[in-house]
Amino acid sequence: MFSEASFTQSIRKVAIVGSGLAGLTLGHELRERGYEVSLFDKARGPGGRMSSKRAGEQSVDMGAQYFTIRHQGFRQFLENKAGNESWGLWEGHFQDRDAAGVWLPSSREARYTGIPRMSAMTRALSRELDVSVSQRIIELNRTDTGHWLITSEAGGSGERDEHGEFDAGLLTAPVQQCRDLLNNSALTPLTDQLDLPEFELQPCWAVGLHFGGDAEFPTDGGKLDHPVLGWIANNSSKTGRQEEGEGQWLVLHATAEWSDRNREASAEDVIRQMTDSFLDVMQVDQQPDQSLAHRWLYAKAGKAGAGSFWWPEQRLGIAGDWLNGGRVEAAWESAMDLIGRITAPAPDRSE
User: Fold this and answer.
1) Are 168 and 317 in contact (CB under 8 A)?
2) What is 112-128 written as a DSSP string?
């Protein structure tokens, strides 16, 4: 008789699409349980939104600015898999700015960052895993034997590569990209479960500004109630950044609403408008001597609490921070939820 438990136990070779924190967590946890795991990422390196941009001899965190640790299991995961040298406490001075322009103390919750850049933590997590980068997965196809054959486009070249065969496929991309991949793979019925407003991810423009000299700012990191800016951070105040060069890098994140309205704006125009807003908010006369910008099409998550998706008949699953509220730690939580779904014994239907 059919048993879902034996069906799940037959999974041995797993493909993971995406090497952000959710994908890296899945990779380590499945590997420890004896699975053969391969990760694929369209970027040039692992990390997802926990990425940093090089700016000369310095680096700037343009995506996730910090993470919290609310679950002891997450701390143990980072200690065991990333090592304590790749992340640590951000001992900054944190204030938020209200609509009246008043600076108020932020939450006292401990904030952590990668050292010496945010991406150092995810690169440490990727060291023992099989990660193929510059591979944009565009299609999943079922073989006659019931396995998954994965097709990628390498480095935007248009040339297609095939990878496989895999017993199961796990997606950790933003929801919009998961839907596209499932639709391209003739798996449209599965996308209906992803069409909920709370799953949608909003865009975010990020701008880095470098100031020479000893300019002082009222906060090392904080939220703003402002029509353009939603977040400001002094990147140079984070642990391990002080030795990277003179001056200070500030990182600005625009609000989701402003970012959406300016989705197709040029980087130059975005930098100009966000810089003007920053100088006005901070009451600073000094102009930045360097700037850079990055548009995150899928950044701000809603308040979904689905945990993860697992379709045992198809041997497909989805995990990601957007399924658990959007925090960095939520990516780990979602991945662990999916691990539980994959490995949990199911009721025997033989009776």
Assistant:
1) yes
2) EEESSSHHHHHHHHHTT
- Three-state SS sequence of 220-287: CEEEECCCCEEEEEEHHHCCCCHHHCCCEEEEEEECHHHHHHCCCCCHHHHHHHHHHHHHHHHCCCCC
Please tell me the distance from the alpha carbon of residue 144 to that of residue 141, in angstroms, as a whole number. 10
Query: Is the pTM here over 0.85, yes or no?
Result: yes
Look at strands 112-114 and 131-132 and give their pairing: unpaired
Instruction: Give the three-class secondary structure for 95.
Output: strand
| pLDDT higher than threshold 90 for residue 244 | no
Tokens of 232: 């400001």
- CA pair distance 249, 234, nearest whole angstrom: 6
Residues 6+ apart with CB under 8 A from 94: 105, 106, 107, 111, 219, 220, 221, 222
220-224: average pLDDT: 97
Residue 155 φ then ψ, to 5°: 55, 30
Residue 190 Cα distances to 121, 139, 316, 317, angstroms: 33, 14, 10, 10
- First-to-last C-alpha distance (Å) of the chain: 8
**pLDDT tens for each residue of 293-331:** 999 999 888 777 879 999 999 999 999 999 998 899 999
In 114-167, alpha helices (H): 118-126
